[in-house]
Amino acid sequence: MQEGTVLSFDFGLARTGVAMGNTLTKTAKPLTIIHAKSNDERWKAIEKLVEDWTPDFFVVGVPRHGDGTDCDLTPRCERFARQLGGRFHRPVFTVDERFSSVMVEHGRDKIDDAASAVILQQYFDEEDAA
Questions:
Q1: Who has the most CB within 10 Å: 82, 93, 101, 120?
Q2: How far apart are CA 70 and CA 97, in angstroms?
Q3: pLDDT digit string (tens) for 58-115?
């Protein structure tokens, strides 16, 4: 596993959850939720996060149906992951996010940042198991 700081994204059309983590401690924590009305606004917010955190790589959650097949948002998330790598010239890893929102504590209206932390923690755990 590449060492350093990681930013993770739970991409959504209305909101994108962001978490950060460190490969040394292999822990993830919620960072923010990007509320963007346009793609330009979303990318400006992401650019600011990249400047502030200088991540070594990114992790993006890719949603799928319970049986593993693609859902409506799957291609959009995969495209977002490719664009992220292209814009910032860093590696991007994807994680199956089928269960991330389920694992997040109930009772919060906006869980996107916490779901992103679950996605990143899943990435760390899967890398440890490999």
A1: 120
A2: 12
A3: 999 998 888 888 888 899 999 999 999 999 999 999 998 875 554 555 445 567 888 8
Give CA–CA dist 128/11, Å, rounded: 25
Q: Answer whether 21's CB lies under 8 Å from 128's CB.
A: no
Could you give the CA distance from residue 102 to residue 49 in angstroms, rounded to a whole number?
26
Tens of pLDDT, residue by residue over 2-15, are 678 999 999 988 89
pTM of the model: 0.88
Give the CA angle between residues 52, 27, 84 to the nearest 5°: 45
CB atoms within 10 A of CB 75: 11
Q: Which residue has the tokens 């910032």?
A: 88
Which residues does residue 33 pair with via DSSP β-bridges, in sequence order?
A: 17
